Amino acid sequence: MKTILFTFLAIVTSAWYLALSATTFPPDSALPWIIRQEGMYLTGLLSIALMSLTMLLSVRPLWLEKPLGGLDRIYRLHKWSGILAVGFGASHWLLKLSSDIIKPLIGSAGRLPKIKYEGLLEVLRKLGNDMGEWALYAALAMLVFTLWRRFPYHLWRHLHRIMPVLYLMLAFHAAMLAPPAYWAQPVGALMAVFFVIGVIASIISLAGMIGRRRQVNGSVLSVNSEGDVTEITCQLDEPWQAHRPGQFAFITFDRIEGAHPFTIASADRGEQTITFFIKALGDFTQKLAQRVKAGQTVMIEGPYGRFQLAVNQPDSRQIWVAGGIGITPFLAWLESLQARPEEAREADLHYCTRNRESDPFVGRLQKLCAALPGIRLSIHSAKHGDVLTAGALRLAEGQKKKADVWFCGPSGLADALKKSLKDSWSGRLRFHQEAFEMR
Ligand SMILES: Cc1cc2nc3c(=O)[nH]c(=O)nc-3n(C[C@H](O)[C@H](O)[C@H](O)COP(=O)(O)OP(=O)(O)OC[C@H]3O[C@@H](n4cnc5c(N)ncnc54)[C@H](O)[C@@H]3O)c2cc1C
């Protein structure tokens, strides 16, 4: 993700630099005023470019799943490009305000002349200026709500719907206030591409068309609860694009509540039924077992994601690690292998739970793994003092020099394992992680 963002920023900065190289400033211009103006152009450009990227990623572009590694990663990139966009927007605004510091220090004499507009263009430019300011205030407020983890997710989601409107206001601001000379240079072409992408994505979002082609209706077949986990099986009314084990879908039980993402924990048997295991983790999921009844209609959108069983890497050791509800993609993997056990690779599956005795998945896992001799199941029960460490995973290092760790679970555990393994693993190690968080 860092490489993608860095490359993106480097391309946009290079386009700005080309434009800067072609600019001739009046001979009496003072350097602080030049820095202020060019700084404003650069930060404004970076902000709108990142905002356009954020908008593109928000429409769940399937064609980006492969290069970016799945929709969960697309959302992570969406989040960070959005945060950076607002950050550059704030710097742009601070640079604008910096005239109040520069003027008393060096005076207005070396200030760059303002570009003159007339008639309708001047009216639109002023409108663009005001729009940009108000949209930036709103985007800054949105950033605070995004980073403030205690702000309820369902409220945040509704507020977040304003983003395409803010984007359109910011794009109008950028188009009206960019220097006219930009439009005859590569930077202008780049901006035009960003505007087209961002405006189309905003329209798709405002028209409620995100993921529409992947939505199918269905009904709840059964609801079973065990502890804080609810198993829900749905029957789909319309043909479902076959899902691969480990993929997830957005499920809507109630239009006002909206869609929530859950891993499809069952293998695709062509019967158009899919099963989810849902843990009570927040306000909606805590009431789910009481609210959802067999026979009720649902809408399912998907499948998405690339947390997929690797069948074609015979030279790499497979280490699968699940924490709590993060076991769901592995359940789908194991279930799909029941029909073709000959395809089952050797793998070490580590399942971390609070208490193996009350855990709803332990029995199911043991049953699924019993039919797959290559899969070595280890249950780590915190209550019994068995906590998974990187040391336990290193025991699997063996002869093979390559290893693939597939992880789904709490990000704290992932970070600790990743760091410790990267420091100590002697061969080549790839860490694949399904993120259960989109905000
Ligand atoms: C790819 C993926 C696969 C997942 N698979 C499973 C699974 O198999 N089983 C399971 O129990 N949980 C799964 N989750 C997590 C599940 O989506 C959240 O626990 C659930 O949406 C929480 O909703 P809430 O209103 O009860 O909680 P809240 O307290 O409102 O939210 C808790 C957190 O859940 C996330 N969340 C809440 N609502 C949404 C939403 N509409 N869209 C996206 N994220 C949301 C946010 O990160 C939020 O901070 C998965 C998440 C992702 C991203």
From TrEMBL:
Q: Which Pfam families would you find in this protein's record?
A: FAD_binding_8, Ferric_reduct, NAD_binding_1
Q: Which UniProt keywords apply?
A: 2Fe-2S, FAD, Flavoprotein, Iron, Iron-sulfur, Membrane, Metal-binding, Oxidoreductase, Transmembrane, Transmembrane helix
GO (cellular component) term, any one: membrane
Q: Name one GO molecular function term.
A: 2 iron, 2 sulfur cluster binding
What sections of the protein cross the membrane?
Answer: 40-57, 77-95, 134-151, 163-183, 189-210
Where is this protein localized, as stated in its record?
Membrane
Q: Which cofactors must be present for this protein to function? A: FAD
Report how it sits in the membrane: Multi-pass membrane protein
This protein's source sits in the domain of life called Bacteria
Q: Which PROSITE patterns match?
A: FAD_FR (PS51384)
- Domain FAD-binding FR-type, by residue range, is 213-310
Does rRNA processing appear among the keywords? no
InterPro entries for this protein? FAD-bd_8, FAD-bd_FR_type, Fe3_Rdtase_TM_dom, FNR_nucleotide-bd, MRET, OxRdtase_FAD/NAD-bd, Riboflavin_synthase-like_b-brl
- This chain belongs to the protein called Ferric reductase-like transmembrane domain-containing protein
